[in-house]
Amino acid sequence: MKLYKNAIIILSKSDKGVTLRKSVYISMNIRQHKIENEEILLCKEARKSADCEGRRTFEALCPIRTEFQRDRDRIIHCSAFRRLKHKTQVFLLPQDDHYRTRLTHTLEVAQIARTIACALRLNEDLTEAIALGHDLGHTPFGHDGERVLDRLYADGFRHSEQSVRVADVIVRDGVGLNLTHEVRDGILNHSSKSKAITREGDVVRLADKIAYINHDIEDAIHSGVLLPEELPENVVKVLGDDKSKRITSLIMSIIRNGVEVVGYEDEIQAAHDELRRFMFERVYNCPTINAEKEKAVKVVEFLFLHYKKNLHELPALYQKLAEEYGDERAVCDYISGMTDDFAVYKFSELCVPKAWKRIL
To answer: According to the 3-state scheme, what is the secondary structure of 78-122?
Structure first.
């Protein structure tokens, strides 16, 4: 489909290739024309907009956007998405603006995922919506905050499940985003061993790992935790000696492997796994970083125990959620939605005498 001033050009597939079928005025149903063009341009394994399994609550269709495009837009405009800019990726509360945050990570995942989806002729809008929403429910202080809530909350806590919950029952003052089944499924299964129902969900799961491993390397080098020459020799040989080359190698392997099983070729998979193990040993479990993480753990733990005993201090929305879903569930909802800065602020407000704050 191409747009020309006041008309939409609809393409058609024939033995001679893709040709012009007709031109219609833009006042007609644009969404329907997009759906028709998906049938022509996307591969058979793609989840097309016409096959969308719908929403939990029925809504009239948009005349301009497909259902997956609507989901993408709703996620981008929600408050939980904006808060990602002040949530940790790996380095806690960095003073340097060049370190990744949960928001920049999300944008990088979306870019990588769209590149792969485009090359495989999958649905880019569905892929992007899943990627943009995959960390909506992530805790402050990265995975360390997640592990604290998982330990303290009796039913366990996983950020992928919380991301769906944020979209379903928390944002928009409890109304939720009413996302499509495919987007919710992709978000839920982006980091687990369970499999998404769409190839687009599989793409986001891989793109998430590609983004965080390679960009965490760059941040670790920037911080002095890691030196470029310390990367495993085989990884450098197979994937490349800088971030761009490694990301390109991983993306190209997925593309070469094809759409029937979205994944890497054997040699690339082995190098990827070796790099991931190296990052856990040298960066994610680095004593220098962990020293700060222990402080963050104590902040989250304190907040959980405090609000569990003082539910009346929760905002009205979370008090309502406590009545419907249980006290601990609502406390998890509140804390997981906090930014790093806000969690530290609430901890300080509850623990530090006001006169001392002026001195500090």
So the answer is: CHHHHHHHHCECCCCCCCCCCCCEHHHHHHHHHHHHHHHHHHCCC
